[in-house]
């Protein structure tokens, strides 16, 4: 995965009631790993099912946050 060259703040990622939404958590996770992640490891680390993780990545792609 590649990034659209923006920080999470500049990318316009929103916050939920708890302060950090899933898409932002996923974006930061990918950013921390320079774009290389394992679905199963990311799922375990973020405590979300792989399918939810994949949906989040798809939203980030559609929003132009990652490529």
Architecture overview:
By secondary structure, this protein is mainly α. It has one domain (1-67). It is built from three helices and no strands. α1 packs across α3. It is globular, with a radius of gyration of 11 Å. The N and C termini lie close together (6 Å).
Features:
about 70 residues; mainly alpha; 3 helices; about 0% strand; globular
Summarize the structure.
With 67 residues, the chain is mostly helical. It has one domain (1-67).
Number of helices: 3
The total tally of domains equals: 1
SSE sequence, one letter per element: HHH
Range of strand content: under 5%
What is Rg? 11 Å
Helix content: 40-55%
Q: Note poorly predicted spans.
A: 6-19
Largest sheet: none
What's the assembly state of these chains? Answer: single chain
> Span from first to last CA?
6 Å
Mean pLDDT: 80
Tertiary shape: globular
Q: Mind sketching the topology for me?
A:
Elements: H1 22-32, H2 39-46, H3 50-62
Helix pairs in contact: 1-3
């Amino acid at each position: 995965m590649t990034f659209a060259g923006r920080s999470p703040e500049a990318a316009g990622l929103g916050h939920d009631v708890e302060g950090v939404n899933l898409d932002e958590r996923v974006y930061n996770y990918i950013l921390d790993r320079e774009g290389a992640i394992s679905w199963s490891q990311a799922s375990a680390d973020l405590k979300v099912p792989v399918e939810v993780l994949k949906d989040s990545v798809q939203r980030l792609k559609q929003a132009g946050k990652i490529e």
